[in-house]
Write a structure and sequence with these properties.
The protein is of the alpha+beta class and 193 residues long. The protein has a single domain, classed as Class II aldolase/adducin N-terminal domain (L-fuculose-1-phosphate Aldolase). The protein has helices at 22-34, 103-112, 125-130, 148-158, 178-192, and strands at 8-13, 40-41, 44-45, 48-52, 60-63, 78-85, 90-94, 118-122, 163-166, 170-175. Strands 1-7-6-5-4-8-10-9 form an eight-stranded mixed sheet, sandwiched between helices. The longest helix is centred in the C-terminal third of the chain and has 15 residues, at 178-192. The radius of gyration is 15 Å and the shape is globular. The two termini are 26 Å apart. The model has no long low-confidence stretch (mean pLDDT 92).
Length: 193
């Protein structure tokens, strides 16, 4: 299954993001792969991780489109997103590759929740299967990945929730820090097994 980016990227620059926290994000990308939270199909991982760059803005650094988290990631595997135009379906970014197909979703969450500084999106069959039993908040219905409909379905239930299941899709773990988002993911993944 090939993921198709559903927006146009307007590159502010092709400079590779430079932020010392990218090394921390690389560590969590490797952990996501190790725990099978971003399944790898045809060498491409299905999941994306990001962190907010500045507490006063919605700018964030996110995994690039169609990367494999099982590989040793380099800084050029990450993209800085600075804005999204939802009407024209344009993501404004800097980097050497397309940003993740869920960049508009990450942007929307950062815009709505100033307390969130990290968003980890993954796919876990055990979490999806057991979401109802574990009382994990779920979107009302399945929506296509990377779509405005998916963004709206998440925003409809977001409130102050830090872990959400997107019906028949995957999960979102939100944190004040990357460590917080990872610890929450691991805790829920353990009880879902």
């Amino acid at each position: 299954m090939t993921h198709v980016v559903k927006f146009t990227t307007s590159f502010v620059s092709h400079e590779i993001p430079c932020d010392k926290r990218i090394d921390e994000l690389k560590k969590y990308c490797a952990k996501f792969h190790e725990l099978k939270l971003a399944p790898c199909i045809d060498d491409i991982s299905h999941g994306n991780l990001s962190f907010r760059i500045n507490p006063d803005k919605n700018y964030f650094i996110i995994t690039g489109s169609q990367i494999g988290l099982q590989k040793e990631l380099t800084d050029d595997c990450f993209v800085e997103v600075t804005d999204c135009d939802f009407e024209k379906m344009i993501v404004h970014a800097s980097g050497a590759r397309e940003p993740s197909s869920e960049s508009m979703l990450h942007f929307s969450i950062y815009r709505e929740r100033k307390d969130v500084n990290a968003i980890f999106h993954g796919h876990s069959e055990s979490i999806l299967t057991n979401a109802e039993r574990l009382n994990i908040l779920q979107t009302r219905q399945e929506e296509p990945y990377g779509s405005i409909e998916l963004v709206k379905s998440v925003l409809d239930i977001l409130d102050d929730n830090n872990f959400i299941v997107m019906k028949n899709h995957g999960f979102l773990s939100l944190g004040k820090t990357m460590e917080d988002a990872m610890n929450r993911t691991m805790a829920i993944d353990r009880i879902a097994m």
